Amino acid sequence: MRTYFIAGNWKMHKTRSEAAELAKALVSQLKDGKHKYLVAPSFTALETVGNIVAGTNIMLGAQNMAAEEQGAHTGEVSVLQLKDLGVQAVILGHSERRHIYKEDDELINKKVRLALKHGLEVILCVGELLEEREAGKAEAVCETQTVKGLEGVSAEDLKRVTIAYEPVWAIGTGKTATPEDADAIHAYIRKVIGKLYGEAAAKAMCIQYGGSVKPENAAQLMAKANIDGALVGGAALKAETFVPIAKFA
Ligand code: PGA
Fold first, then answer.
1. Which of 122, 191, 206, 224 could make an S-S bridge to 228, C-beta 3.0–4.6 Å?
2. Ligand 1, atom 2: nearest CA belongs to which residue?
3. 206-247, pLDDT tens digit by residue?
């Protein structure tokens, strides 16, 4: 039985005081929540939020990290610095990193391996563009991003990886994949994991859906056999929209 995993990606939003206010509300409203939870604030709010969620059922995540441990990399943040703040997980390969900041599969894979080497959990995001979906390439794109993203990752380390399927056309657009369409891609990704790591690993793999998840559609998405949670952007910015998703029934 897989555990549902609901994560909030706060993107480039919130000052420290705004982040603290949301984190406090989530700690109190999710304390009886039954699933696995994570919040990923901006780097600047990690320490503030980390102090609030420490010792609760909400994990602290970062939205990105550098591919190198340390060194002359102006403007980057290293895995060692994240760990120093109590960060437990990192989102890698988000479509905004891939498409706005031109991160490729090779770079993302380097980050994945580095994060795992240092004991972090990883949420590896994959997903196709609208034109790729329309050209019938959604499965192929997700397969490539999954295979390349996981290159060199051992079966043991894979246990700390979650895959987030985020169709790019559904992110921040209000357009959600239908539960059926999302489930089909999730099933395909699971098959890819099976080919790489075997049946047991495929069964155990947590695959989140992301892209305009809202309180109104969360339960239908989660009801699907292959959807094991959500990576939430816009609706994660307020307790009143994140909590109902996190406590979907
Ligand atoms: P959204 O973002 O929920 O605002 O569509 C999801 C994501 O980018 O992870």
1. 206
2. 233
3. 999 999 999 999 999 999 999 999 999 999 999 999 999 999
